[in-house]
């Protein structure tokens, strides 16, 4: 296939992106989806769920024992979140850039947190921080049959 050259081969990286309850309450779900779509990433899975404590303990396992762990679980478990899987070249690192710094005060304007949030404890959205976390988080939040198999017809205009 003429179009599936250089960059296409790496274009199947995936990241777990989640709109947190504050993003849902503040009506920023569409805005966040829009930014990932506009960038050229491919939506592979999406669902609205109120996460259980057990799920969140696993998701935030690395933070167990920290001062903000309980408040964090209360916050993320307080209402529905929108859990998503996005696919594309470097989607993990580019997704983190699009989100901005963990502390919105340090996020550049133009990033999701830099445009819509003020404090770390209400920072709107989550994105996997490495390929390894992405795999772990996608496995945690989704069953295999919840991941859509489809070809984006625009991909030959997104990749060279
Ligand atoms: P990340 O979400 O940017 O990867 P992490 O350090 O993994 O950042 O922290 C996970 C989440 O925990 C943050 O997004 C934020 O919601 C929350 N969090 C982290 N540090 C603090 C804190 O000092 N106070 C309140 N919440 C925090």
TrEMBL record:
The enzyme's E.C. designation: 2.7.4.6
Q: Where is the Nucleoside diphosphate kinase-like domain?
A: 12-149
Which keywords does the record carry? Kinase, Transferase
Active site at which residues? 126 (pros-phosphohistidine intermediate)
Which residues take part in binding ATP? 20, 68, 96, 102, 113, 123
Any one Gene Ontology BP term: GTP biosynthetic process
Q: Which GO MF terms are attached to this record?
A: nucleoside diphosphate kinase activity
- Going by the entry's taxonomy, the superkingdom of the source organism is recorded as Eukaryota
**Record carries keyword Iron:** no
Its needed co-factors are: Mg(2+)
Would you identify the family this protein belongs to, as annotated? Belongs to the NDK family.
Designated name of the protein: nucleoside-diphosphate kinase
Q: Which organism is it from?
A: Didymodactylos carnosus
């Amino acid at each position: 296939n003429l179009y599936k050259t250089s960059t296409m081969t790496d274009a199947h990286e995936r990241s777990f992106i989640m709109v947190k309850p504050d993003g849902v309450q503040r009506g920023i779900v569409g805005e966040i989806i829009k930014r990932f779509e506009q960038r050229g990433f491919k939506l592979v899975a999406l669902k609205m769920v109120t996460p259980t404590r057990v799920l969140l303990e696993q998701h935030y396992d690395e933070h167990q024992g920290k001062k903000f762990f309980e408040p964090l679980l209360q916050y993320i478990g307080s209402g529905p979140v929108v859990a998503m899987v996005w696919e594309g070249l470097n989607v993990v690192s580019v997704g983190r850039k699009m989100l901005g710094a963990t502390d919105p005060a340090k996020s550049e304007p133009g990033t999701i947190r830099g445009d819509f949030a003020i404090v770390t404890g209400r920072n709107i959205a989550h994105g996997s921080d490495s390929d390894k976390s992405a795999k772990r988080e996608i496995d945690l939040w989704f069953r295999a049959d919840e991941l859509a198999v489809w070809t984006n017809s625009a991909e030959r205009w997104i990749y060279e």
